[in-house]
């Protein structure tokens, strides 16, 4: 419409100079409605053309970026392979890093390079593992890692935390400790792993002070990380009011065979919390000795199915003992069919003569179980 008001003038007054309008006669001959249609069509054609041009340049720009990324990945993969496969020394590694930094100035190639080193370091041992660590430290990427740790984006935080934990960058310890209470649960969880790796002498009581629940995956990962840790405060963890922290303490005690906390495991074996009960039973059974036979017999029904099977395996070597034989007989006569089969299998395997008394038992299920087990063994 602006064009309409401008072009309907016979003359243009620009800077005190009057110019004739070359399209005045044509515009004057058009009706207002027809002129409006022409303007709309012209505007539509121009905007469509502009969109095509813009789309072309955006597509070309994206294609250029993707090609650049592919080039970076291929370069890093090929040169790293050469670097690891050849006999290199510190000087060769320094020169390699200098060449890399000279070739790539932006952060993206450095991040890809660091991530490749991280994967190699995790998956390898010995000289290759040490070589990956050396290349990482020669990169001198602390500034970049710090910027990602301080980033407002969780994905950046997670990358930084993984690198800090796996390469054990102890200079970040204080910053990691502050992120144990991060509002983002995923970031807080990764900070916990990083902190654990940076503090191999930790007693793990920071988990109690942290006052946050752990997931089952957290327990598994922390137990793996702490496989060789020696300063763990098992008592404090087991007695924690946070159920999953208690589970971790129990799991670590069982993993490290800490006999001194056996009495605590005994208290937790039949907890109302299934996870605590399950972990306590499993840990207790790892430490069981001859003095615990009465506990296994008297509390047999309170153990879960999996641990009942394990108890039968443990007690099968003592079938000549009156108490053990009585337990097996009770299981065969009163327990569910699968448990009857288990007990009978052990009796037949250890002393088949004792099993024959169940051949003509007055309980039809017992006779059927006997037939099934003996058919299997025969």
Q: Can you summarize this structure?
A:
The chain is mainly α and 378 residues long. 71% of the residues lie in helices and 2% in strands. The protein has 22 helices and 2 strands.
Descriptive notes:
With 378 residues, this protein is mostly helical. Among the domains are: 201-287, no CATH class; 291-378. It is 71% helix and 2% strand. It has a two-stranded antiparallel ribbon with strand order 1-2. A hairpin with a 2-residue loop joins strand 1 and strand 2 (17-20). Helix 15 packs antiparallel against helix 16 and helix 20 crosses helix 22. It is elongated.
Give descriptors for this structure:
378 residues, mainly alpha, two-stranded antiparallel ribbon, elongated
Quaternary structure of the protein: single chain
Strand order of the largest sheet: 1-2
Secondary-structure-based class equals: mainly alpha
How many strand elements?
2
């Amino acid at each position: 419409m602006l064009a309409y008001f401008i072009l309907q003038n016979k003359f243009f007054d620009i800077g005190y100079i009057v110019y004739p309008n070359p399209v005045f006669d044509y515009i004057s001959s058009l009706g207002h409605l027809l002129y409006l249609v022409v303007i709309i069509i012209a505007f539509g054609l121009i905007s469509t053309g502009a969109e095509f041009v813009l789309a072309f340049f955006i597509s070309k720009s994206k294609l250029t970026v993707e090609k650049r990324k592919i080039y970076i990945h291929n370069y890093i993969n090929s040169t790293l392979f050469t670097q690891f496969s050849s006999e290199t020394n510190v000087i060769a590694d320094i020169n390699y890093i200098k060449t890399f930094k000279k070739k790539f100035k932006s952060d993206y190639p450095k991040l890809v390079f660091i991530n490749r080193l991280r994967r190699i370091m995790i998956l390898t041992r010995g000289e290759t593992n040490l070589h990956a660590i050396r290349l990482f430290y020669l990169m001198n990427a602390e500034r970049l890692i710090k910027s990602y740790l301080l980033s407002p984006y969780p994905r950046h935080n997670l990358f930084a935390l993984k690198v800090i934990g796996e390469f054990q960058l102890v200079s970040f310890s204080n910053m990691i400790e502050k992120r144990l209470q991060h509002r983002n649960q995923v970031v807080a969880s990764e900070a916990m792993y990083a902190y654990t790796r940076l503090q191999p002498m930790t007693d793990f009581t920071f988990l109690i002070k942290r006052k946050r629940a752990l997931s089952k995956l957290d327990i598994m990962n922390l137990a793996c990380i702490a496989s060789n840790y020696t300063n763990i405060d098992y008592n404090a963890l087991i007695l924690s009011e946070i159920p999953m922290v208690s589970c971790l303490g129990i799991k670590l005690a069982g993993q490290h065979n800490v006999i001194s906390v056996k009495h605590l495991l005994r208290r937790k074996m039949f907890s109302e919390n299934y996870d605590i009960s399950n972990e306590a039973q499993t840990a207790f059974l790892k430490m069981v000795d001859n003095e615990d036979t009465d506990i296994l017999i008297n509390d047999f029904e309170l153990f879960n199915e999996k641990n009942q099977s394990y108890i039968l395996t443990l007690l099968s070597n003592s079938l000549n003992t009156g108490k053990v034989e009585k337990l097996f007989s009770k299981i065969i006569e009163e327990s569910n069919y699968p448990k009857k089969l288990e007990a009978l299998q052990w009796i037949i395997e250890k002393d088949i003569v004792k099993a024959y008394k169940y051949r003509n038992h007055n309980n039809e299920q017992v006779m059927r179980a006997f037939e099934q087990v003996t058919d299997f063994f025969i």
